[in-house]
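User: I'm curious whether this sequence folds into something compact or stays loose and floppy. Could you predict its structure so I can see for myself?
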Amino acid sequence: MDAQSRGRADEIDPADQWVLNPQTGDYELRLPQSGGDSYRTPSAPGPRGSGRRGTAHEGGGERRSGGRNGEGRGPVPEQRGRRANGPRGPEGSGPDSAGRRKRKQPKGRRKKALLWTGGVMAFVLVGLSVGGYALYQHFNGNLNSVDIGDAGNKDVITANAPLNILIIGTDKRTGKGNEGYGDKSSPGHADTNILFHVSKDRTNATALSIPRDLITDIPDCTTKQPDGSDKVIPGTQNIRFNVSLGQEGRDPGCTMRTVEEITGVKPDHFMMVDFNAVKELTTAVGGVKVCLAHPVKDPDSHLDLPAGESKIQGEDALAFVRTRHSFGNQSDLDRIKVQQQFLGSMIRQMKSDDTLTSPTKMYSLADAATKALTVDKGIGSIKKLTALAKELGKIDTKNITFVTAPVIDNPAEKVHATVVLNEAKSDPLFQMMREDTSLTEVKKQKQAAKSKQDALLKGTKAAAADVRVDVLNGGDRAGAAQETVTWLQNEQGVLKSTNKANAPEKIAKTTLEYAPNQADQARALAAMMGLPGSALKKGTTDAEGLQAMVLTLGADFKGAGVPVTGPAKVPDDIPLANADKAVCAK
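Assistant: Here's the prediction. I'll summarize afterward.
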């Protein structure tokens, strides 16, 4: 079955099969039953009644469902060239028609429904991927999924927790017309990489680009083989980040583990796309606006655009995100900036009324997106992707921030072809992401965090000599527990501190567990160590006798006397870009 015939039924255009369900505010796919022209939703037990919903209009014009004049409903795809069989009853006939006349859907609610069922969040990698429009079972067959074992987390989409998605763009030559791109012998390296961090309260997101030429360590990783068995791929030290995928049989789970090794942030899911994704997705939305500070005619990518604004799609869009030698200092880092600008424009286009109110565009977008995606099994179904899209749709575009991991030229090279982390800048940035601190000014989040911190730390503090604490090492820093105890006793006067060696398991964030009657001790210790309010874990029963608090040092512990509290803001000289602002590529 070719791409044009996917989802068709008796020569009906796929876009014509989407009908608004006034009970939910969502568009639903209606497929014809055998032996008749009546329609049912994929989940419906039987055909609909004979009221106006489900009848088809001949000729042109918008088809609307609802009251006499179609008021209160968004545009619904026209059923071209068909009329439903059977008599059309008088207005108001049918078992549920009365309810339909009464249920006017307010404009605000309608737009909200469209926002999340539409191109809620464009993740075009080299542009990312896409949350689709009414992603029902019709699109399940388009998806490819990979079992990454325990490299990710399966149940965090709707959980009360931050969400981290690793977007991977490969240089694999799959898809028609891509024979001349990338490395013809590449198994599919991690060429473009964005760690998309969504805040716990879903008010903001950080899109962290990781350069492909970053020199790093790739940890051991377990991969699933075709026969279901596990195979451990040995790690490699001091090597380019992009070989964390494809090389030596590494799968996306290996790239996820490498990202965690670099940032301390564990990706929950991944989405992977190839060259075709950019071409197909930009075409599906009718093009994406880009801006150039100067005209470009690049002999390598074949990009040929004038200065100022242009609208590009297909091959031109792919050329734009692949162009390196015509921007900035012709490095991959400047290409990353251009890709971030392109992605911001793609997000704006997908959330625009021009896309959201066009059923044909929405169908094409969902079809192209699901065909372009390879995902982990944790989100490897339309139902799960729809849940993900619903969460992402809560984020205001102005609170999506793009940033690149801070790097410097590799000092080990005479000719600089690779980069290494600038730890003085990258450490605070990564810590902000681990602490779920927004890079944008989200007033609600800042006030809530401050209130929580004040409530936890406000009040009397015990004298240092009265603080009793057991210290465990749950991080990667060797000897951290003893280092902390020595500092507490010699520098802070906390003589009742004890080294309890290693914690039962590794943890990402430092915690201090205390009983209700130890609150004054907890406040004192938190002030000494610079612990955030989120690190304090209050128990339910009072401590008895000589029972001590329990301080477990996590991966965020950087040394005795170094505050654990995340930085208040990103270092001033790290460039940031927001998805709601158009910028001209230089």
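Summary: The radius of gyration is 27 Å. The chain has a mean pLDDT of 76.
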